[in-house]
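Quick log. Single chain, no ligands specified.
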Amino acid sequence: MSDRDLFEVFNAPEGLHGGWLLLVRLLSGHVAWMTLLAVAATLVLGPVGLRRAMARLVHGAVLSALLAVVVSLLLRQPRPGDLALGHQYFHALLPSGFPSVQVTVLWALALGALTLRPAWPWLGALMLPLGLVVGWAQVYAGLQFPTDVLAAAPVAAVGVGIAHLLRRPLEVELTQPLLRWIDGLRRQRR
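-> predicted structure:
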């Protein structure tokens, strides 16, 4: 079965509206960024030990998202709407959907959680299927092909790998100054 055939199987029927359309919009466009925001909020508000781990997760997710955007711009692939396939319910920000940036972010968080010391398998176990649900919603809404979703996995792995290789400079140049600044703000509020 081809990518286009799979897209036709999973794409929403004509006339999608109401609560179902709202749920698909939330899943396809907002869940990944809300999840990353929640992790970043834990970086700011959480206890000291947890904040360092959250910073590493954010590093991996942000590097993976940037890598996904670069790949998307370099390997411009048409979206289903560009080929007059299926039904589209939303407009995408990037002209190319390959790979899915939102799914890349979720899977980068999952891979990061699984590779951190100590590993957080429960967080990884939550983020991996959430990435699949978000990817399904993007195909259902007509924004992406199934391969766009699947391509997020290797991009997330490379982004998390780069973040792991750069963990020392990221820690020294970004995380430590950010945590000192956050601690200073916390002391001022007391």
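The chain has one domain: 3-189.
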